[in-house]
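Mods, move this if it's the wrong board.
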Amino acid sequence: MITSEPPQDVTRRPPRIARPDGVPRLPLPGFPLPGPGEAGDFWARVRAGGTPLITPDPQGSPGHSAVTFLWRGTPATRAVQVLPNKIGDPRAPEGNLMDRVPGTDVWHWSMRLRNDWRGTYDFYVDEGGGPEQGTPGYWQWLRTQRRSDPLNPCALPRRWSGDPVSYAELPEAPGGQDWQPRPDVARGRVTAHEVPSGELGGTRRVWLYEPPLASGRQEELPVLVLLDGEHWQPRLGLAHLLDNLIADGRIPPVAAVLPDSVDSGTRWAHLTCRPEFVAFLADELLPWASERLPVTRDPARTVVAGQSLGGLCAAHAAVSAPDRFGNVLAQSGSFWWPDGPQAEWLTDRIARTPRLPVRFWLSFGEQEWVALPAARRLREVLAAAGYDDARYREFNGGHDYLCWRTELADGLVDLFGPATSAR
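Not the wrong board. Structure tokens:
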């Protein structure tokens, strides 16, 4: 039964949904593999160009490419698994095991992808010391043997901790140029704070972005509240993106408030449609920011944004407090939540609520087979409820910060642009 209160004490995991289509694996790469005695020259050429190797589509489509991942093994290497973000089937993990060229140290795995794909990926290397393949616990153990790609210079900071995660981008994929610091651009100021919260108890670490020349200005600043601030600012450098978008005139000068999610357990506890977290954002965090910067109280010029559970939370915040949050930017939002009898709870709430003065900007990865059914239902519910200005799109990627950073830029330009100021 649907209730007005969000469910509690539910499983902290997504639904177990089988991948509806197969992994687009190719049996062989689009180039000759070395034979015994030829691997040294092969690796020298690979090292000079970097990995993965991109070659023409074996089916002849100009809009597709073959992508080959390579790993240089050792005499101890028993198996290597490669997992591009959301391109795999958890029910058939052997489908992502690489093949070894007999008599060499060359391990390879290829797939066919459309040329606008981009994604992060990891290797999982079995060099002994764990269970044998086919025995209980092997796949769980293998997932502890994670490695980055030593032949790929392209990497992003990893969520929470650990070595950077490698990534690849095909020729037509959106790039991350907007995120690169530019010496000719005026820079905003980022400060870190501990914000007291009666709603959450204790304090919450928050990063505050002040746009260039904000001090002493008379007009109010539009404001962005971006969840998972500990990753977006210290690791990914959100300030560089905002500096560039402002300098190019693509968005007006904006303030940004980025609360920390603390850790995985706290994130699950607070971002799953909790009223107290909405109260923290609306009644504590925004007033705190307004004491330090001239931020607007106009919900039409306020964006709340998040990814995954953060996307769910952002939408819940706007639905719960439309007088404070008039714009939702949700990327790969976990609108399936919870996994159980009250699945898609927030979508059901939206379906039963008269249209609110809230604008939705939603995007999801085509490879996110778990999230897409709920995402597409939300799109239908918003259309039926009269949200004619809602934006929905799907990108060729997975559940991935590499994709989310370009999607975030596009969403901010749309929501903070002329359409917002005209309302």
